[in-house]
Write a structure and sequence with these properties.
Length: about 280
């Protein structure tokens, strides 16, 4: 049986699905069994799928290339990353022409450049309008020091996400939230967070679904995917293909509405509820 916990009946009439990537559609460079085919089946069932990830490192082009290589067809507007959210939020606030020190990868730089925020890479520079922090495998003490000085000097600290870790093939790697915490402690500042479960990403994801009102969110991380979905009044679906092991289901908070082994189990439940 594909349903591990919950009531499949609540999925009746589902119109939109917010789908996490890491730990749900793939893990590292490998797709999780059945996930690419599942997206196509959901689309045929009339469910509008929007992909939503906190991972800020890759550019949109790299995400689209990766998903395409796995057989997942994605429209650009249906891919919501934390840098995409960052750009939309700062653009609405009139950030064009301001400067940013970035701790992170090409995804953040691309997003800031798209709204004419100037990324300051001068290692001797210690002032900026923003300090933007995401996942950065090249994070050093010097980058921590520079970011800390800028925040102490009045820069607004913005986090792509606050995830302490993320699932990789060889285990859980330190995530952007670990670096954000270091900058907060060093500077005394407090970050404004763009990614799940915080309001900016949830609002942008909902906008992508247009008029859809019957919405579910599927993810592997309770404190981001489930918490974000609960804040929006959506159906929450936990899959066990990422960071949450089976023996911790009963202790998960917030409690998911539905628990599945993997994303590939979802279309079967939708088909059953439509009969």
């Amino acid at each position: 049986m594909s349903l591990l916990a919950g009531d499949a009946g609540m999925l009746r009439g589902l119109e939109g699905l917010i789908c996490d990537l890491d730990g749900v559609l793939y893990r590292g460079a490998e797709p999780i069994a059945g996930s690419p085919e599942t997206i196509e089946r959901l689309t045929r069932l009339g469910v509008h799928v929007v992909f939503c990830t906190n991972n800020a490192n890759p550019s949109i082009a790299r995400y689209l290339e990766k998903l395409s290589s796995m057989g997942v067809r994605v429209e650009r507007d249906d891919l919501v990353t934390s840098p995409v959210v960052l750009a939309e939020v700062l653009d609405e606030e009139g950030a064009a022409g301001r400067s940013a020190i970035v701790v992170g990868g090409e995804g953040l730089r691309e997003a800031l450049g798209s709204i004419d925020v100037v990324v300051d890479d001068d290692p001797s520079s210690r002032t900026a309008d923003y300090v933007v922090v995401g996942f950065d495998p090249d994070f050093t003490y010097e980058s921590l020091k520079r970011a800390s000085f800028a925040v102490q000097g009045g820069a607004e600290l913005i986090a792509a996400n606050a995830d302490a870790s993320f699932p990789a093939p060889d285990g859980l790697w330190p995530g952007a939230g670990s670096l954000v915490a270091a900058v907060e402690v060093a500077s005394g500042g407090r970050a404004r967070v763009m990614g799940k479960p915080h309001e900016p990403m949830m609002r942008v994801a909902k906008r992508r679904l247009g008029a859809a009102s019957r919405i579910a969110i599927v993810g592997d991380r309770p404190n981001t995917d489930l918490e974000g979905g609960r804040s929006m009044g959506w159906i929450t679906i936990l899959v066990l293909s990422g960071v949450t092991p089976r023996d911790e289901i009963d202790a998960v908070e917030p409690k998911p509405d539905i628990v599945l082994e993997r994303l590939a189990d979802l279309p079967e439940l939708l088909t059953e509820t439509s009969q």
